[in-house]
């Protein structure tokens, strides 16, 4: 049992969002001074070259990153980057500030080690967050998750496209990569113009005109049906800046749970954590079998609470991983424990490097076809992470 597990019962006596805010405030204070960052690295850091991963011309010290939602406004990036992750993604950030949904909007389900999220993407707005993170350099790749402003109403495609392009401009030259959150379940009840691949193509055409834009990942609702995947990939094909894909959970809580339905059903929002692991694992498998692996990579997330969970997603096709809910239940030391466990699993499988494991359980010739545009990612020059 770790010190965090001894402390967790006390933390769980407080409202989930207030506890989260207090933890971020403490992390921000510690990360603001060099001595604090050094202390965090000495406690939580772990390095092994066998885990180093190159994606989209960026070097990630290990595949396990911290997901957007943990630090929405980039207030604690310096501390979070010292907990041992291979990258830190902040957000979601919109072009304009947003207060999000009314509280309470974050709920714990301890029996399932899950959370229910109904934040409605509150954030300080792209300009303010960009200024903040540009003054707080980090030693690992910094990603920024961008989303439409939560206006409480479905917006037409051209309006959303213009807004995402505006937000992207704020981070050109600041972020190492961007994630476009195209189907966020916490905005306008998950309705999105980007359910139509043609709207995705229109957005990418608009972004192609933005100078200095870093590599882009597309975050979309988890779907495994081949016709949709193929249509989406065809829409993305002409845009070489797209580096890969990550998957949102669909709105709702329709999973097999230990928590009684009488507790879960009244909660607004989307369930995250181990109950959704199977859906997201199958989504990774389905997409890995169809992407052009010379151009695109997959970021796996959802229900990662152990090295075994992480290893499964890698073997299904994820080149990078992201962690959030697991930290709520297992504390900041989870990053180091998972990375250490990945090294042991590499050795047990007789592999020399984590990249050799990607897709071993999903290998398919369908995913090795060459699409029409873009040089292979491996042929592009290596760009240093933002310092």
How would you sum up this structure in a few lines?
The chain contains 13 helices and 13 strands. It has 387 residues and is α/β, with parallel strands linked by helices.
Summarize the structure in words.
The chain is α/β, with parallel strands linked by helices and 387 residues long. Helices cover 34% and strands 15% of the residues. It is built from 13 helices and 13 strands. The protein has helices at residues 3-11, 16-31, 34-44, 77-80, 126-134, 157-171, 197-207, 226-236, 261-264, 277-288, 307-316, 325-330, 334-348; strands spanning 53-55, 58-60, 64-66, 88-93, 106-109, 114-117, 142-146, 177-181, 216-221, 242-248, 270-272, 297-301, 320-323. The strands form 3 sheets. An 8-stranded parallel sheet has the order 3-13-12-10-9-8-7-4. Helix 8 links the parallel strand 9 and strand 10. The protein is globular. The chain starts with a helix and ends in a 39-residue tail after the last helix.
